[in-house]
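Example 3.
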Amino acid sequence: AQTVTQSQPEMSVQEAETVTLSCTYDTSESDYYLFWYKQPPSRQMILVIRQEAYKQQNATENRFSVNFQKAAKSFSLKISDSQLGDAAMYFCAYRSVSSNTGKLIFGQGTTLQVKP
Amino acid sequence: DGGITQSPKYLFRKEGQNVTLSCEQNLNHDAMYWYRQDPGQGLRLIYYSQIVNDFQKGDIAEGYSVSREKKESFPLTVTSAQKNPTAFYLCASSPFVNSYEQYFGPGTRLTVT
């Protein structure tokens, strides 16, 4: 069974600085998707970024980028130029391409604090 | 506006009562999901539905039931058999079950005392 682990329950960053959130996963599959979701205090889950496992190039969305290391089964999220609005809980998630359920498997989450 | 609505935002019930959480989407999505979120844990899948009149159990279906009589609606009933029902419940949808992206509703916080 696939698992996702986020080993940092809490992180903090100074406004305008860069922070990296860690995520590791375990799977025997070769084709899958990885995601980072943001859950602000409103608790609405928002997709931040997506990575397809077959793509070697790391995904980037404005200030958000990932470091995808397939062999190491690592998928970290880098937030550049951190803003106060980035304060939230961040979840790493895995989805099998071959899954007939569409199920997302989530890590435990990392709470990010942004200090002004 | 297109999206997913969940109501109510906060729900309080006495132990032993069944309670139904609403989830409606106007995105014309085929697939819908229910997740449960507990403190310090990620979301866990309760039930999912690929199409109208069909639904399947997820990882933690015990004590829950669902129906999918209409494409836009996927209500979740938390029964008295659910041992620890207090949690935050999130509904999600995707265009079809193999879509890589799921869109989430705002969630319902259920407190059972």
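The longest strand of chain B covers residues 43-51. The mean pLDDT of chain B is 93.
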